[in-house]
C-alpha cells in the first residue's frame, strides 16, 4: 500500500488560498503539436551565478546489453496507453533489463478527476478508466508517474492553489483502505501539471495561462502532502520546450533566490543574458519556489528533489532539420542544465515525455533519420548523469514507433542498447 502518513495532515483541510495573483504572461503557444539513486545534496551557495553546464559523460567506458557500447544508467519507462504495456515489456527484454530493475509507467488525468468525472473521456481521463488502468498496471509497473492537466475545455481556467490542494489530497486518498486504489502495491509519483507553460489544450489542457508563480504553487502544495520519506515523490516543472515554449527555458537571472528579482527584471543578469532580458518562465518558477518554500511547511533552503521536462524541441529539430545540440543557444537541454546549477545543482532530472518521430511530419525513415534520432536522444540524456529517466512515447503504433509488430525497429535497437551511435546510416553531427 502507499503510505501517506507523512504526506501532510488531511484533517487540516486546504489552506485559505493566498495566491499572489501575478499578471498573466502573454502567450504565443497556440498551435503547438500534441505533446500529449538519491540526488546529491544542493551546494551551500545561495546563487546560481554563472553555473557551468555539466560536461558530457564518457559514455564509451561502460559496456551495455548485447556487447554494445555507449550504455549509461538511465531508465526507460512508458507513457499512457494500456496497449503500450506489452511492447514496453518486450523492449525491456531487448534491453537486457533485469527483472529486479524498476518498471516506470506514466499516465495523464484531469486535476480534479475525483471531484468531476467527465463523460466520454479516454482511458485515464475518467475515474473508472483510471482505476481500470491502475488495476492493469499492478502486474506491469512498479511505479506510476501521474500527471495532472486541464479538461481541454475553453470554459476551464487554472484552479486556485486551494482548489488544487483539495483535489490533490482527494486523489491521494484513493489509495486509502477501502478506496478504489487500495490494492495498489507499487509506488506513486506525480507532476502537478502537464506543461504549465504551454497554454494549449494539448499541453496544460487550458486555454488560459498558468503563470510560473501559480505553477510553482501547485508544485509546492503537492510536495507538502507528498514526501519522499513516505514513499511519495513529486517532480517539479514538467515543462514544454517545443515551439514558442523553447524560450521559457532560459537562464536570464543569475541568482535563483534573490527577492529583488521581479516578473520583469533580473536583479543580477546571468552571463548568458547580455541584453537585459526579463526573467524567463523557468527563472520566475525557480525564484518563487526558493522564496516561498517556508509557506508550504518546507525549509528555507528547500529545492525540488526532481524536475521534469519534455525535450521535443531538441529531438524534433534534429530529426527534421539536423539541428545539432552544441551550444546554449541552439539546445534547450543545455539551457536547462545551465539554469539548474548552484543551489539547484542536486536536482535529479526526468525526461517524462518524448518520442523519436512521433511529432515529425512526414514520419522519419525507419532506417535512417529515426535510428539517428534515437542515438541523438541517448546522447542528449547522457549530457548529465542527473538525467535518470526517459518516459518514451510510443513503443508501438503512431508516427515513429519502436516496433513493427513484434519486430524491434533499428531505432528501438539503438534505444534498447542505450547506444550513442547508429552504424546503419550516416547520421548528421549531433554537437555532443
Which features characterize this protein?
TIM Barrel; alpha/beta; eight-stranded parallel barrel; 9 helices; 432 residues; disordered N terminus
Could you explain how this protein is built, in words?
The chain is α/β, with parallel strands linked by helices and 432 residues long. The chain has a single domain (51-416), classed as TIM Barrel (Alpha-Beta Barrel), CATH 3.20.20.80. Helices cover 22% and strands 12% of the residues. The protein has nine helices and ten strands. The protein has helices spanning 85-94, 127-137, 161-172, 212-225, 281-292, 312-321, 332-339, 369-381, 410-416; strands at 75-79, 104-110, 143-149, 187-191, 232-239, 306-309, 348-354, 387-392, 403-404, 407-408. The chain has an eight-stranded parallel beta barrel. Helix 3 (161-172) runs parallel beside helix 4 (212-225) and helix 4 (212-225) packs across helix 5. It is globular and about 55 Å long. Residues 1-71 have low confidence and may be disordered.
Amino acid at each position: 500500500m502507499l503510505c501517506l502518513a507523512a504526506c501532510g495532515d488531511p484533517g487540516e483541510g486546504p489552506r485559505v488560498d493566498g495566491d499572489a495573483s501575478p499578471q498573466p504572461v502573454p502567450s504565443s503557444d497556440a498551435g503547438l503539436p500534441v505533446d500529449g539513486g538519491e540526488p546529491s545534496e544542493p551546494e551551500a551557495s545561495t546563487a546560481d551565478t554563472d553555473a557551468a553546464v555539466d560536461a558530457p559523460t564518457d559514455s564509451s567506458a561502460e559496456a551495455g546489453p548485447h556487447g554494445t557500447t555507449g550504455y549509461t544508467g538511465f531508465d526507460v519507462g512508458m507513457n499512457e496507453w494500456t496497449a503500450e504495456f506489452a511492447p514496453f515489456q518486450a523492449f525491456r527484454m531487448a534491453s537486457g533489463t533485469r527483472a529486479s530493475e524498476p518498471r516506470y509507467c506514466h499516465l495523464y488525468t484531469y486535476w480534479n478527476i475525483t471531484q468531476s468525472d467527465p463523460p466520454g473521456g479516454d482511458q485515464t481521463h475518467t475515474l473508472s478508466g483510471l482505476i481500470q488502468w491502475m488495476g492493469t498496471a499492478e502486474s506491469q509497473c512498479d511505479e506510476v508517474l501521474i500527471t495532472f492537466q486541464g479538461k481541454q475545455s475553453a470554459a476551464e481556467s487554472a484552479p486556485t492553489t486551494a482548489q488544487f490542494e483539495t483535489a490533490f489530497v482527494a486523489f491521494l486518498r484513493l489509495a486509502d483502505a477501502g478506496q478504489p486504489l487500495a490494492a495498489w502495491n507499487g509506488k506513486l509519483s506525480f507532476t502537478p501539471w502537464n506543461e504549465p507553460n504551454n497554454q494549449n489544450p494539448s499541453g496544460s489542457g487550458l486555454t488560459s495561462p498558468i503563470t510560473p508563480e501559480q505553477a510553482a504553487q501547485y508544485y509546492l502544495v503537492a510536495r507538502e502532502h507528498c514526501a519522499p520519506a513516505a514513499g511519495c515523490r513529486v517532480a517539479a516543472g514538467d515543462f514544454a520546450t517545443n515551439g514558442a515554449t523553447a524560450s521559457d527555458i532560459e537562464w536570464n537571472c543569475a541568482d535563483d533566490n534573490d527577492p529583488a528579482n521581479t516578473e520583469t527584471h533580473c536583479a543580477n543578469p546571468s552571463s548568458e543574458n547580455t541584453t537585459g532580458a526579463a526573467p524567463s518562465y523557468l527563472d520566475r518558477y525557480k525564484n518563487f519556489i526558493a522564496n516561498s518554500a517556508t509557506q508550504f511547511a518546507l525549509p528555507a533552503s528547500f529545492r525540488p528533489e526532481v524536475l521534469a521536462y519534455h525535450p521535443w524541441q531538441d529531438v524534433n529539430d534534429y530529426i527534421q532539420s539536423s539541428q545539432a545540440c552544441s551550444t546554449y543557444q541552439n539546445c534547450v537541454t543545455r539551457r536547462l542544465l545551465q539554469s539548474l546549477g548552484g543551489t539547484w545543482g542536486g536536482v535529479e532530472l526526468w525526461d517524462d515525455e518524448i518520442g523519436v518521430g512521433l511529432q515529425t511530419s512526414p514520419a522519419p525513415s525507419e532506417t535512417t533519420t529515426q535510428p539517428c534520432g534515437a542515438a541523438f536522444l541517448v546522447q542528449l540524456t547522457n549530457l548529465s548523469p542527473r538525467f535518470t529517466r526517459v518516459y518514451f512515447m510510443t513503443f508501438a503504433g503512431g508516427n515513429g514507433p519502436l516496433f513493427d509488430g513484434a519486430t524491434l525497429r533499428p531505432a528501438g535497437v539503438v534505444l534498447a542498447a542505450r547506444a550513442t551511435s547508429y552504424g546503419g546510416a550516416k547520421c548528421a553531427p549531433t554537437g555532443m
